[in-house]
Amino acid sequence: MNVLVVGSGAREHALVWKLAAEIGADQVCCAPGNAGIERLVRLGPSTQDPARLLEFARQERVDLTVVGPELPLSRGITNLFAREGLAILGPTREAAALETSKAFAKELMARYGVPTASFAICDSADAARRALARFGFPVVVKADGLAAGKGVVVAPDHETAERAIEDLMVQRKFGESGDRLVVEECLAGEEASFFVLSDGHGAVPLGSAQDHKRAFDGDRGPNTGGMGAFAPSPFMTSRMEARVMRDVVAPVLDGMAAEGREYRGFLYCGLMLTANGPQVVEFNVRLGDPEAQVVLPLVESSLIDLMQAAASGTLDGRQCVLKRDVYVGVVVASGGYPGAYETGKVVEGLDAVERMTDVLVFHAGTRVREGRVITGGGRVLTVVARGDDYPHAIARAYAAVDLIDFDGKHARRDIGRKALIATGREGSLGSPA
Ligand code: AMP
Ligand code: GLY
Asked: What's this model's pTM, rounded to 2 decimal places?
């Protein structure tokens, strides 16, 4: 068995870590990978180009490829591998439209009765301005296409909404991604991410998590790729999960299959748990980052078995057993991220953290220079800790984060606080031991 993981972030480090533990590090490779992944498994070429990855997969006699990020999926890596007879887990370009076009996702949900915010799809700035009147404020303005998580503006007032339309559609801040906009009703509630693995027909739940998208404590500051996560989400009870499987996952998979866009792979359901039940905020056609770093350690079942079954359309009757622990992951970032930041800073303290029990360190923007780990990106590491409950996992995660140091280091200090509030344990931080 030879598995290739495509991607270079902490999410892919977590995937590689889990797969290497199951089948042995010599059976796993990763492209492009990063400095942390390189310590576990061999790396392939530094590219996200499907044709070059195909060449590498052939040369390495890879039996199954799993794709972490959305970009290679949007470029049709699954179409190419399938055409060439190589097994791969991830949706085709046509099925990836669930993430690559928000307008497509909204219209699909409308066609199949999936609960989501009411919306208007707008092909001109005038149409978008007219839509504002329909929804009132706050209102949400979204670029249709991919924008690295930055194409969504939750606008409290008219002026902010107008500016979003101007930036996205007129100034084309994200290029053609903003040539079409979705203007939608603003939902209120708790936000949770729910993950399933689909084989095109049915799906297996993989668990839930909550992300922290803003740069600073208290959900303030600009949106980032994600500053930390915990799993599971206390709001995703087994009842809620069953409801989401029935009202969201099943109709979406059936609808995609009926429309010739059979969906195979990980599916990320971004949910708002409102007073009227769960509503879909977005779909992503992959695992989340940093959610994967806290969800994958919870998986007790063999992930490789589930992935192979999903890729070959034979998931029926399987389930994913989860541990009863909780995990908290804190992203350690470069000061200034998501704006401008410096790189090349020496990262201290990794050895001490790696000696801690129940702590995992997943690398994202790291490089090695003269044998030392240095920073090479905005999100540098995700530091993940296990606990029997949220207070212990949070305390342990921050004990580890505090051992790590580099010039300009930035981490939020309140990751997991929402779980403490939800479980009535705010103010009761456990000891890290
Ligand atoms: P997205 O990229 O679609 O996940 O949107 C980014 C963030 O914007 C989400 O995580 C939500 O916090 C927020 N958001 C998106 N759509 C809505 C909505 N209809 N109502 C309230 N918040 C939203
Ligand atoms: N954590 C959000 C994402 O992966 O899109």
From this structure: 0.96
